[in-house]
Amino acid sequence: MTGRPPSSDLDRRYMAAAIRLARLNEGRTGANPSVATLLVRDFGQGPVIIGSGVTALGGRPHAEPQALAEAGERARGATAYVTLEPCAHHGRTAPCADALVSAGVARVVGAAGDPDPRVCGRGYEILRRAGIEVEEGVLADNAARDLAGYLTRRTKNRLHVTLKLALSADGLMGLRGTGQVALTGEIANRQVHLMRAASDIILIGSGTALADDPALTCRLPGLEDRSPIRLVLDDALRLDPASQLAASARRTPLWIASSAPPDADKRPSLAALGAEFIAAEPLEGKLALPELLEDLAARGLSTLFVEGGAAVARSFLDEDLVDRLVLMTAPQKLADIAAGEGIVAPLTRESVPARFKPLRTAWYGPDRMDSFERQN
Asked: Are residues 105 and 184 in the same domain?
């Protein structure tokens, strides 16, 4: 794209496409974020995409070299749209910023900046020193929303936490002593499974594990292999070895956060089934959540999807560890479905704390979804 000024409308259009492409491998790129690159060039009849790439499964190769390889010699003089600042540090392969320079790219349009101290402006600096035109921050908020796990891990040294609550119209999450009560319908439930597929870890407490005996897998056709690691907060080791979680531990990873000693009751049988134990510290009768999130982030994990009951949800809210809220509200009152002592949700959309800003509202059949994002 030579001899023409930047088109902000065009830039936003291609960046939006790159952001959508990056979602392809979300939750499957290990410690690296899922990033996308589009190479665009005008050969005289309007701009066309000549190369595309998204971070490969496991995190390598990065998006830029894949897009450059597809474009070949056509990359010279092209514009590259990158959803995250190109890396600037040397490993076994050259930095992506250097690869863009070597390919002769004329212009780079970036979305989110990379807070990694090995990058953090250096990628763009490499490009500018080589005479490449750089425009930063195009749809940066949109890209950062999808990269929130990686960005949170880099800036806060912990996992990014999404808390999902399913509520009845009267603000209840269930009934005591009755096990799981279906509140939302099939369309809303499928959306939740999509959220699971994009997460590194899904978390519940031992109370929910005992009451509901959930599988916590992604059961959408074609996405079964994208089930996240299942993590149970279970300091007293109450999880039943005959549960769905334990029985499937060798197929889908099951981690148990506990301070129980190696010879604790049930630990050997759970370990024999394939469960992995995460050492956690007890604090005032509960597991220390901030330290747990830091330890998990140190493993290169980035996103945590909390689907626990009211007690676990309240613990994350009280610790101010929730970054994103997703409220699924059914149209009916729980009292109209069944009788019993209701479990009151820690919040509803009318009582969301002021530190969360509304992000999106959608309807999935009769059920309403409201998402909120923490204001940093």
From this structure: no
